[in-house]
């Protein structure tokens, strides 16, 4: 095992080796990994990297394909909350005892990004004494672990995973998840059968084609046809079944969809081959049928897999809540599982903890950060009698509160319901392929019937064969492959550029989009307060002001304090006390300092000047007898934001800003970025309604967001992006997930979507053009069967090859 | 060429066995995670860790995995 890595100073770091975030200039942290000092952006990343390197698992960094999530600052109290899982009754809900000393348990892991993570977790866990087996399933983000409860507790497993920077929670098997696994396996079975069948039939087909060219005895030709028949038959009945089922379901509702033309192609080519085999005449197309089925199934399988991967990850709002809560039972405070809280229970919410359930404050005063609901990062002050909501974070001081309702009736559950509502009400744009398909099928059937009728008059003996060759030559294989082949290749290309495509059809919606709607906090901005301006009020030096401010803010958990965390602190600040809802007070060189609201400063310095304006969030700093400064904080705009918006406007998209923030900063930001339409103070439901309103007016809306409060609107928009650092719920609703946090990827995706649309149109033009030329020839009886078969394969290949161009 | 009458059915029997095996493997969950398995074979160039959990992986020290 290599010696444990040490943190030491490194000069000029750029991006964090662990999470990929830029490293602030004044942070000088490094961890030695594989002999090289690597820059780290924060203590959290450094701690995780040290843990990984110290366990001899540095190879993880070589193998991973994506950066890790930035870990929350390690807090012993955070790990304390996993203690509840040591309760046997609670543990039994997600673990099973195989034998004495052997318990198997399943955990759902948040933050797994690539296969190297699974390796890290498995190997790191296997080093713990008492763990006999650890297996991570990347597709489901699930960890199955078998351990000996006599040697280690379940909570220590949770804590260990948390230390690695992943977020564990019990894996509850629900029906949706179960169905999803079953669906996946069924798809894979069909694909496997089609693949093996394709190889087998292909082998016979080569012999048959060789026979066509150099001559073959009739008995062997018959043999090869007869053995191809059952294999192809099995593939058609087993693997191609979903096409037939879907076609029939839509047909009964009176709609002609692409699946119908696929079914027709498979069904007709197969029937014609069977007829040729039985009668010993004509041409067989078994190989084309099977290959076509395989290719289509493959495209569908790949799309579904990308979609499913995200579906498993923490797809509901409830998983954002802590698993344990502190409640008063029999006059004592106990840590109880959150699910056991009842209305009227008295709970204790410590500073820094998430509120577990909707409750009314009965003692204490504090502030709660409600960005889950409004995206605002400045907390709301609460006191006795106010209601706090599940999913918000208590930032200032401990609160005692009385539980009001169950989780089911909470405001967070209502948000989850909006998300589900959004999913079903998402407008399905009529897909180009399906629109063409209905005309095409109607056309083919008409032509076939006319041909048959005409030839019946001319030569009844030829009527059947000519009608059949019309059907075969018009087989819409190329047409059916046109869209899926293009979408799959475009999704592939985007994935390599750092955009995960979850719903391929959204590419089509995106290429037609007319409106681009942004969320503000965390999307256009970095989502954290930073120091924007310092206005000295006395003779004090700029850097001294910040140093004193940072030394005071070190004692605060308020979000404002984060803005100062990278500032060098002044020495000798002591006796710091926190005044809830007002600010901080401390002593330096025997003199009293205060930092906080205007009123709080005036108590110390009566002539403290009024705050400069409402543009920034201002905090005052003063010393006994002297006003020192106003420090203005602001959420910094992402560097690339203005460029992206200008490009979007040049592409004639209407850009809008929808923000939950009620302050003047929304319109202010919009003005600087050149966005004309702004809607501030929007609840998640209002955001959703706004997008639906646009859609009713005929707009195709692309939405970009990140927070819990954006999840419903992301679900309802025609195409939606989740930016990096987005909450898991937002990710699970978005069609595109931007991995690296570069808003410029939106423009790239837009260009790719438009390119994809062009390729699809070319594919359609070719497929339709080919059919239009070939059908009249076939109808006149000029096309021999082997040419029909060749044409069918070649036109499909051409479509696939054209789509590959998207991969570049 | 008469041997075809024997060889083709034999080939078909093998094909049926292969399909049966594959379907069994899928149903028993061996293909549930395609990403990891494809990657795992490359990951084992690491110094061998505790053999307890994943003994088969230690075979990777042999050259065939590379």
Which descriptors apply to this entry?
heterodimer; A: 808 residues; alpha+beta; Calcium-transporting ATPase, cytoplasmic transduction domain A; 7-stranded mixed beta sheet; 6-stranded antiparallel beta sheet; 28 helices; B: 66 residues; mainly alpha; 2 domains; 52% helix; disordered C terminus
Q: How would you summarize what this structure contains?
A:
Chain A has 808 residues and is an alpha+beta fold. Chain A is 48% helix and 19% strand. The A-B interface holds A 56, 59, 63, 115-116, 118-119, 122-123, 126-127, 131-134, 136-140, 181, 184-185, 188-189, 192-193, 196, 200, 203, 217, 220, 223-224, 227, 231, 305 and B 1, 4-5, 8-9, 11-12, 15, 18-19, 22-23, 26-27, 29, 31-36, 38-40, 42-43, 45-47, 49-50, 52-54.
Distance between the termini of chain B: 42 Å
Secondary-structure element order of chain B, as H and E? HH
Arrangement of strands in the largest sheet of chain A: 17-29-28-27-18-25-26
How far is the first residue's CA from the last residue's CA of chain A?
Answer: 43 Å
Secondary-structure-derived class of chain B: mainly alpha
**Poorly predicted runs of 5 or more residues of chain B:** 46-66
What proportion of the residues of chain A is helical, as a percent range? 40-55%
Largest sheet of chain A: 7 strands, mixed
Describe the protein.
The complex is a heterodimer of chains A (808) and B (66). Chain A has 808 residues and is α+β, with helices and mostly antiparallel strands. Helices cover 48% and strands 19% of the residues of chain A. Chain A contains 28 helices and 29 strands. A 7-stranded mixed β-sheet of chain A has the order 17-29-28-27-18-25-26, with helices on both faces. In chain A, strands 9-8-10-16-11-14 form a 6-stranded antiparallel β-sheet, with no helix packed on it. Chain A is elongated and about 115 Å long. Chain A starts with 28 loop residues before the first strand and ends with a helix. Residues 1-13 of chain A have low confidence and may be disordered. Mean pLDDT of chain B is 70; it is low at 46-66. The radius of gyration of chain B is 19 Å and the shape is elongated. Chain B has 2 domains: 1-32; 33-66, no CATH class. Chain B contains 2 helices and no strands. Chain B has helices at residues 4-27, 34-43. Chain A binds chain B through residues 56, 59, 63, 115-116, 118-119, 122-123, 126-127, 131-134, 136-140, 181, 184-185, 188-189, 192-193, 196, 200, 203, 217, 220, 223-224, 227, 231, 305, and chain B through 1, 4-5, 8-9, 11-12, 15, 18-19, 22-23, 26-27, 29, 31-36, 38-40, 42-43, 45-47, 49-50, 52-54.
């Amino acid at each position: 095992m290599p010696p444990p890595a040490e943190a030491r100073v490194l000069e000029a770091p750029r991006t964090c080796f662990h999470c990929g975030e830029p490293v602030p200039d004044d942070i000088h942290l490094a961890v030695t990994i594989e002999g090289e000092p690597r820059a780290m952006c924060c203590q959290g990343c450094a701690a995780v990297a040290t843990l990984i390197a110290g366990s001899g698992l540095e190879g993880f960094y070589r193998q991973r394909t994506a950066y890790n999530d930035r870990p929350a600052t390690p807090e012993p109290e955070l790990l304390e909350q996993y203690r509840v899982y040591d309760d046997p009754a609670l543990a039994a809900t997600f673990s099973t005892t195989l034998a004495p000393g052997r318990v198997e348990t399943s955990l759902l892991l948040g933050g797994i990004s690539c296969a190297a993570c699974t390796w890290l977790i498995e190997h790191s866990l296997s080093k713990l004494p008492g763990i006999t087996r650890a297996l991570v399933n990347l597709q489901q983000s699930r960890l199955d672990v078998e351990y000996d409860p006599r040697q280690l507790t379940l909570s220590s497993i949770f804590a260990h995973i948390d230390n690695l920077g992943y977020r564990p929670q019990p894996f509850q098997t629900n029906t949706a998840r179960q169905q999803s696994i079953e669906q996946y396996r069924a798809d894979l079975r069909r694909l496997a059968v089609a693949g093996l069948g394709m190889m087998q039939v292909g082998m016979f087909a080569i012999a048959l084609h060789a026979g066509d060219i150099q001559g073959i005895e009739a008995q062997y030709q018959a043999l090869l046809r007869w053995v191809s028949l059952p294999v192809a038959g099995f593939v058609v009945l087993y693997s191609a079944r979903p096409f037939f089922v879907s076609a029939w379901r839509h047909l009964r509702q009176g709609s002609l969809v692409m699946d119908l033309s696929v079914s027709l192609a498979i069904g007709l080519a197969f029937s014609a081959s069977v007829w040729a085999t039985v009668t010993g005449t004509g041409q067989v197309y078994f190989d084309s049928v099977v290959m076509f089925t395989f290719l289509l199934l493959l495209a569908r399988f790949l799309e579904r897999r990308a979609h499913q991967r995200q579906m498993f990850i923490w797809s509901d709002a409830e998983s954002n809540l802590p698993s344990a809560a502190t409640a008063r039972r029999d006059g004592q405070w106990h840590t109880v599982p959150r699910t056991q809280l009842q209305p009227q229970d008295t709970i204790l919410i410590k500073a820094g903890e998430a509120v577990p359930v909707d409750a009314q404050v009965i003692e204490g005063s504090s502030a709660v950060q409600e960005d889950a609901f409004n995206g605002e990062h400045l907390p709301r002050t609460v006191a006795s009698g106010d209601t706090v909501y599940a999913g918000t974070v208590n930032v200032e001081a401990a609160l005692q509160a009385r539980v009001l309702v169950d989780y089911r009736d909470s405001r967070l559950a209502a948000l989850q319901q909006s998300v589900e509502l959004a999913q079903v009400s998402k407008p399905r744009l009529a897909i180009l392929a399906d629109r063409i398909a209905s005309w095409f099928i109607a056309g083919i059937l008409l032509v076939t019937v006319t041909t048959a009728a005409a030839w019946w008059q001319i030569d009844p003996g030829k009527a059947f064969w000519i009608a059949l060759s019309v059907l075969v030559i018009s087989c819409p294989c190329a047409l059916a492959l046109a869209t899926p082949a293009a979408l799959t290749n475009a999704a592939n290309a985007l994935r390599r550029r750092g955009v995960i495509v979850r719903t391929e059809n959204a590419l089509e919606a995106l290429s037609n989009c007319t409106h681009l709607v942004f969320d503000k906090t965390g999307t256009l901005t970095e989502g954290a307060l930073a120091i924007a301006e310092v206005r000295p009020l006395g003779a004090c030096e700029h850097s001294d002001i910040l140093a004193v401010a940072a030394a005071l803010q070190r004692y605060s958990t308020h979000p404002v304090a984060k803005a100062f965390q990278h500032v060098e602190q002044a020495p000798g600040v002591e006796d710091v006390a926190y005044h809830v809802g007002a600010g901080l007070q401390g002593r330096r060189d025997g003199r009293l300092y205060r930092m906080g609201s205007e009123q709080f400063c005036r108590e110390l310095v009566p002539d403290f000047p009024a705050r400069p304006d409402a543009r920034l969030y201002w905090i005052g700093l003063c010393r006994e007898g002297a006003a020192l400064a106003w420090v203005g904080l602001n959420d910094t705009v992402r560097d690339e934001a203005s460029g992206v918006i200008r490009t979007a406007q040049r592409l004639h998209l209407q850009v809008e800003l929808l923000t939950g923030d009620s302050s003047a900063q929304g319109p202010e930001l919009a003005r600087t970025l050149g966005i004309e339409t702004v809607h501030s103070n929007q609840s998640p439901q209002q955001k959703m309604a706004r997008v639906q309103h646009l859609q009713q007016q005929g707009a195709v809306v692309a939405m970009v967001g990140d927070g819990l409060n954006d999840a419903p609107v992301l679900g309802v928009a025609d195409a939606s992006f989740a930016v990096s650092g987005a909450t898991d719920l937002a990710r699970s609703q978005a069609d595109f997930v931007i991995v690296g946090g570069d808003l410029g990827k939106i423009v790239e995706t837009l260009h790719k979507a438009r390119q994809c649309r062009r390729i699809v149109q070319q594919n359609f033009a070719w497929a339709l053009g080919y059919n239009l030329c070939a059908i009249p020839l076939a109808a006149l009886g000029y096309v021999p069967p082997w040419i029909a078969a060749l044409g069918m394969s070649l036109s499909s290949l051409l479509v696939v090859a054209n789509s590959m161009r998207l991969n570049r | 060429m008469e041997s075809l009458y024997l060889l083709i059915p034999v080939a078909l029997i093998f094909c049926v066995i292969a399909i049966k095996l594959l379907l069994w493997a899928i149903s028993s969950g061996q293909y549930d995670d395609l990403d990891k398995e494809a990657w795992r074979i490359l990951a084992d160039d690491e110094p061998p860790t505790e053999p307890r959990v994943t003994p088969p992986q230690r075979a990777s020290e042999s050259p065939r995995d590379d």
